[in-house]
Amino acid sequence: SLSNSLAAADIAHSLHPYTNARAHERNGPVIITRGDGVHVYDSEGREYIEGLAGLWSVAVGFSEKRLAEAAARQMAELPYYHTFAGKAHEPQIRLAEKLVEMTPEALTRVFFTNSGSEANDTVVKLVWFLNNALGRPEKKKFLSRIKGYHGITIASGSLTGLPVNHKGFDLPAIPVVHLTCPHHWRFGAEGESEADFCARLLREAEETILAEGPETIAAFIGEPVMGAGGVIVPPEGYWAGIEALCRKYDILLVSDEVINGFGRTGARWGCEKFGFTPDILVTSKQLTSSYMPLAAVLMTDAVYQAIADHTEKLGTLGHGFTGTGHPVATAVGLENLKIIEERDLMGNAARLEAPFQEGLRALGGNPLVGEVRGIGLIAAIEMVADRATKRGFEPAGKVGARAAAFAAEEGLICRALGDTLALCPPLIVTEADVARILERMGRALERTADWARA
Ligand code: PLP
């Protein structure tokens, strides 16, 4: 059959990201053939609800004709042009304008990249460029967090605080200090309240800044709600405290909203949800619903002015990708943002937060479930070997992989992050879709508990 020959060709020729290559040679791929709304279908004809919206990204679902048409129109009109040396084109201009309109008022300028990783590399380089411009070349270090995810290139992968992205790759390769992950349930000390935990983390951050020397710390980067690290919602007061430290020690605050942006947390931006104002904001994923690769770095006027001054001195900004502001990607992004606004998909996420989050918490009676957490339309279920001590499984990840496989059999795609199952459905989900996600997840957890017992 076609799917058998495709599978054989995949096994013969591809090296897959985030995949155990030897296991893949044995098991072969799951070939996804088409999408329809919140559903995708595989080559065996099986239907799944895409409970992770692809990779936390397909806001408008998998069959939005307006995006296909926007891409085709732009392909026919001007399929490619670059934005180097002062060249511009309408979709890139309009999307930059739209992003400035849709983000906190302080952010006034946009630089486009092809991916979130490149956007965060761009952040590192712009921050270094800026501090060189300001005559303080020693101010170069980044503060990040353990379990933070910022991408996988040399610089962004260094900012990422997950061992899987460092091991074997000689990362971190840039000066970065990873602070404690703000996850009270997992990292709170015995009997420590959430408020005390938060205060301890803020003390740690300040002590780290002082020990390293504030004159060496350029920026703090964080996801308002961590995504790939396991969907971690920080304690109340955490972001206000981090923002205050950044202001006190003249450290730029970077909000990585690659997952959080466009309503995911129930607010438009994660920084708005948690009430802080970044100097730099990074967005991608839901920006185009991932129909085209695109990311953007937004910055304040102060950041822009310092960079602009330096380009005058050096003659140019020696940074940019062939695809920076790609016309097809930006045209698709613009149409996608129109759809998000016209259909009030950000409002939909806020309205469905309660049934989604409460429904998931109601699955907490399952004996494997240690914690159910999340906000807006993003959530995770962390499974543990022992609920009383929160001890995880040995080896880590086996139960998570089994549970994700059961969920797929039940018709739900979720993501196993170790033994934590993440959900982040398309923003177009309905209340009935949410109910189906909950049913399927519930059955997958029951089957996993039976399997673990056996
Ligand atoms: N930042 C965050 C918060 C992300 O979740 C991701 C991807 O998942 C990235 C950056 C990297 O984006 P990309 O995979 O497009 O390089």
Automatic annotation (TrEMBL):
Cofactor: pyridoxal 5'-phosphate
CDD domains the record matches: OAT_like
Keyword Zinc: no
Keyword annotations from UniProtKB, A to Z: Aminotransferase, Pyridoxal phosphate, Pyruvate, Transferase
One of the record's GO molecular function terms: adenosylmethionine-8-amino-7-oxononanoate transaminase activity
Matches recorded under Pfam families: Aminotran_3 (PF00202)
Gene3D superfamilies: Aspartate Aminotransferase, domain 1 (3.90.1150.10), Type I PLP-dependent aspartate aminotransferase-like (Major domain) (3.40.640.10)
Transmembrane region(s): none
GO biological process: one example: gamma-aminobutyric acid metabolic process
Sequence similarity: Belongs to the class-III pyridoxal-phosphate-dependent aminotransferase family.
PANTHER family membership: ADENOSYLMETHIONINE-8-AMINO-7-OXONONANOATE AMINOTRANSFERASE
Protein name: 4-aminobutyrate--pyruvate transaminase
The species this protein was found in: Cereibacter azotoformans
Lineage of the species this protein comes from: Bacteria, Pseudomonadati, Pseudomonadota, Alphaproteobacteria, Rhodobacterales
